[in-house]
Amino acid sequence: MKKILTLAALLMVISGCSGEHAASAAKPVNITSLGGQTPVTKAVAVADEAQYPSHGTAIPRNFAEQPPLIPHKADYPITLKHNSCLGCHSWDRAAKMKATPVAKSHVLDDKGTLKGQNYFCTQCHVPQADNKHPLVGNSFSQQ
Questions:
Q1: By CB neighbour count within 10 A (0-12 exposed, 13-18 middle, 19+ buried), where does 118 fall?
Q2: pTM of the full predicted structure?
């Protein structure tokens, strides 16, 4: 009985893969560009490279409790074994590097050991460049 049910299920699956279904899947899909049918006739200049504030310049926050923005590129690797941000921002190196030290709320002890939830800095802190052309309009206002 079990073999008959298995065979019946197999036949149902195979019949679902009939030639009619396969033929409809092979038809080309017509996709239209968001620009419509207008051909591209000119090359557009590449956007200006991002310009970051000079070292030591903090970017103003837009609202209370906003994580500070990173005023430089943030392409330093952060892995489970090593957090490159701490090369400049650890408590013992920040003054020497003229960098903002890790906040006290992010550490476990007097040595500046990061809490687990604060180890991956770029989860909350993002780089912010002074881009010449805003991507979208912004009408945010703090009330």
A1: middle
A2: 0.56
pLDDT range class, residue 117, cuts 50, 70, 90: very high
- CB–CB of 133/49 below 8 Å? no
Residue 85 burial (CB count, 10 A): 21
For the stretch 120-136, what's the b/e string if a residue is b when 16 or more beta carbons lie within 10 angstroms of its beta carbon? ebeeeeeebbeeeeeee
**Strand, coil or helix: what is 48?**
coil
Q: Which residue reads 């310009």 in tokens?
A: 51
Residue 70 three-state SS: strand
Give the tens place of pLDDT for each residue, 8-43: 777 776 766 555 555 556 777 777 777 777 776 777
Q: What is the pLDDT of residues 65-82, one digit of tens each?
A: 889 888 888 888 999 999
Residue owning tokens 């180890």: 119
**Which pLDDT belongs to residue 22?**
53
Q: What sign has the CA pseudo-torsion 13, 18, 21, 25? A: positive
89 within 8 A of 53, measured Cβ to Cβ:
no
78 DSSP β-pair partners:
83
Using a 10 angstrom Cβ sphere, with 0-12 exposed, 13-18 middle and 19 or more buried, the burial of residue 96 is exposed
